[in-house]
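Support reply, case 0932

Customer input (verbatim):
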Amino acid sequence: MTKNILICGGTGLLGPIAGNVLSGQFSVRIHGKSKKADCQGNLISYAETEALLNKEMPDVILNLVALTNVDTCEEDLQLAYNLNVEIPKNLALWCKKNKSLLIQISTDHIYNSAYASEEDVNLVNNYALTKLAGEASVLMVDGMVLRTNFFGRSQTEGRVSFSDWVLKSLKAREPVNLFKDVFFNPLSMKTLSELLAVVINSPHPGVYNLGSREGLSKEDFARTLGDMAGLQHHFAKSVSFADLDLKAARPLDMRMNVEKFELTFEVTLPTLKSEIEGILTSEI
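Our regenerated output:
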């Protein structure tokens, strides 16, 4: 029997690509504020959450709803709590009653050391704090938490990924600051979506780091992307994070150890350089 998947917050950056990939194997419905969504509902309210989910009756809920603007999370902790903690809690309560699987997309921002394992949590801002707090409800109902970061070609009007911004800036020859001391190991949205299908088909409750096998600094990521796209980048400026005066602190090293995911799901994750090449050749 085909599983019914509900993607909450599915009209953002990742949702359209995940929906497109997952619809090849599952029956997928999209929740969101946009008119393009299949259903709407205020998930901060448990009553509205319950009414929506009782109508949709998903076998699996993929939660993409989040307040990801780090500075906004620092300025408005209540809003960050509502979106990053309250919503996963409401979804988890319904899943517990209805024996559905909850998959929570979390973040690499909870780390701050090279190739951190799932236990190496180091919180430096409210975004990380609230995302970690939101994970707790998911784990209490035997759900899955995927700590990740992603990039690729956006299919959502008004939303751009880091790689979109890099390509746009390099094509326009705009002077941009590239962090030489901020490191990460994201996946392309297409690869991440394909791995979500693996997870749904063979769920294993718990927390997993899900990223590429080898990370880069954000500067090296941008320059590698520029080289592969045949774009000049000598006008881009190499900077240190300390050079900029940002409202909220950020972790400098978000590279994750992904061995647990690889061993559990019997997959070999790609390198970041191969992922960068992939977004330049993929149709998605």
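We compared this against your earlier run and they match. Two observations from our side: Residues 77-98 form the longest helix (22 residues). Residues 170 and 219 are 13 Å apart (CA to CA). Please reopen the case if you see a mismatch on your end.
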